[in-house]
Design brief:
5 helices, mainly alpha, single chain, 134 residues
């Protein structure tokens, strides 16, 4: 199922988004037409911190998703995150309210991760493959 690759790619993707949100906060807000007031800046920085935290979690646990006691909660947490954000992102894309290739690219990437984590979460683990962290 290539869960190590999934966890690595999702960690890198989330880390990139988190770092951008933390360090380019005002530019992101201005780019999307939001006023970079104190509350919006704080919220985007909190979101960046959450994304970076999720990235660290996925990176450190990339060998554990295939099996073990922590595998299912990791897959469930990631699936919920990616699925809910996917639903939130597709709404403005379908309504043509959010244009631009950057927004659509992030939406498509979130969709791919949501589907990939759904496959991992809702499929049975392969009993022939050992679940060692190698």
């Amino acid at each position: 199922m290539h869960t190590k690759m999934l966890m690595s790619f999702s960690a890198l993707f989330l880390a990139a988004l988190g770092i951008l949100a933390l360090f380019l906060t005002q530019r992101i807000l201005l780019h999307y037409g939001a006023y970079p007031g104190t509350f919006a800046v704080i919220i985007l920085k909190v979101v960046g911190g959450v994304l970076l935290g999720f990235a660290v979690l996925n990176w450190t646990a990339r060998a554990a998703l295939g099996g073990g006691a922590s595998g299912r909660p990791l897959a469930l947490g990631n699936f919920v995150h990616f699925a809910l954000v996917t639903l939130a992102l597709w709404r403005p894309v379908v309504a043509h309210a959010a244009g631009g290739y950057k927004f659509i690219t992030i939406t498509v990437l979130y969709t791919i991760f949501a589907v990939w984590f759904a496959v991992v979460l809702f499929s049975k683990p392969n009993p022939d493959k050992p679940s060692s962290p190698a």
